[in-house]
Amino acid sequence: MNQREKGWIETFAKFGHAAKGIVYFLMGALTAMTAVGIGGEKASNSDALKEVNSWPGGDFLLALLGLGLVGYSVWRFIQAIKDTEDKGNEAKGLVQRVAFAVSGVLHGALAFLAFKIAIGSQNSSSGGSREKEIASELLSSSWGKYAAIALGLIIVANGVYQIIKAYKGSFMKEVEGLPSGQYTTLKKAGKAGFTARGIVFAIIGFLFLRAVWSNNPNRAEGTEGAFTFLQTSPFGSYLLGVVALGLMCYGVFMLVQARYSTIQLT
Q: At how many degrees (to 10) do helices 180-213 and 144-168 cross?
């Protein structure tokens, strides 16, 4: 790979970080508005894309966002295949590399959705969630229940991992060259962001396991379901608002990372 090709990949990856940051910031902002009662909605990533599409020039902006998400997806696959993070071929490293690949698939699917919404081929009122569809498919077979349990546990584990990452502050190794005066502020934003993201993942995993346990795939929920779970708990609106603000912080962290990210290609 020559220097020019590396430059293009690095630019594409950074563009992808920015696109992901925008999606998370909008998810958090729309949900925060709902928490304080000034409109908005409990928003998933697809809702964030639809919000962009409603803006003047939304189709064009959404296409750019989709292109950025393609960039993030490609970068995740490069991380998995080329082992740019030097995770190695031991069990722990392979699990992390598989996680990179899964992230690539998910963000590729989100990019595809962005393009579909931009060209008007996505029904804005499409019912059901991806989690319900997956749970229904898995629970329809005898072996699928065990796979569904494993998937739910993986989602919960990912949530716990995000929270541990926030506590340790290890996410800061993903940025370099940041002005010293901004380091502390960004670290605080990252801690809030990764904690909020971990909470949402853990709740989604719990709801998925609950659906499997009750043999009712309709009880599986995605991001919006996790927000509803928070909102209906004691001090629900406050908890929802705090988590929503955390997701906005995560979006800010990703936007800064787009500028100061460490993109390793060897």
A: 160
Query: Rounded CA gap, 222 and 237, in Å?
Result: 18
Contact 189, 171 (CB under 8 A): no
Q: Which tokens hold the place of 63?
A: 């296409």
DSSP state of 174: G
Per the structure block, which two tokens stand in for 45? 């990533």
Q: How far apart are CA 217 and CA 227, in angstroms?
A: 18
**Between residues 119 and 1, the one the model is more confident about:** 119
147 exposure class (CB count in 10 Å sphere: 0-12, 13-18, 19+): middle
pLDDT tens string 162-195: 999 999 999 998 888 888 889 999 999 999 999 9
- For helices 180-213 and 130-139, give the axis angle rounded to 10 degrees: 40
Cα(80)–Cα(99) distance, rounded to whole angstroms? 8
pLDDT band at residue 127 using 50, 70 and 90 as cut-offs: very low
CB 21 within 8 A of CB 257: yes
Residues 104 and 81: beta-carbon distance below 8 Å: no
Token pair belonging to 69? 């998400």
User: What residues does 261 pair with on adjacent strands?
Assistant: 175
